[in-house]
Request: fold
Amino acid sequence: MATGQSVAIIIGSLRQNSLTRKIAGQLVAHAPDHMNCTLLSVDMPLYNQDLDNDPPAAWQAFRQAITVSDGVIFASPEYNRSMPGGLKNAIDIGSRPYMQGVLIGKPAAVVSQSPSPLGPTLANHALRQSLVFLNMPVLQQPELYINRSVTLFDEEGAYIGAEQAPPFAAFMAAFSDWISRMSKAQA
Ligand code: FNR
Reply:
């Protein structure tokens, strides 16, 4: 069994009452005991290659949090059939300087959500497309696309989705196994 895993969960929404953030909270609540999760904000200055020699403090803190993690979960809403610009910016920040990006090669998983019945499949796969370039081994199954996400929480934000519960625990257990398998493969 895996021991002492550290996982960064990048929240793709900046909104105060973000459903993505609430869903990330459920991932944390359903994580195995040996997994320590840290939620990361994408509220950072836009990536600009001119700043590579003197990066903003927010970039440095974000990169440090990724560096010390064993794996990264990208939690994203769907925006215009893709991921939000803020999340793409965070990926860009984590991908640079060239060949030194802290995201390169990190085990990853993707969860996406949308309040719509159609769901957030396209955001999930737009994200995966960027992770290919960063050579991030991405958990394939279980896929976690959460549609009608607004029905999972009451007006105070409390989780009420027990009956139609997305498989949070199975997803986190699979990601824990994935991190272990990837670290053995890279050893
Ligand atoms: C959206 N939303 C949306 N939903 C969807 O299913 N497909 C889409 O393409 C879009 N596009 C979109 C664009 C923009 C600019 C906004 C603001 C919203 C709805 C969106 O997924 C929904 O509001 C999420 O709940 C936002 O995530 P947070 O902030 O609740 O985490």
Observations:
- Residues 105 and 130 are 13 Å apart (CA to CA).
- Helices lie at 19-29, 57-67, 85-95, 121-133, 168-186.
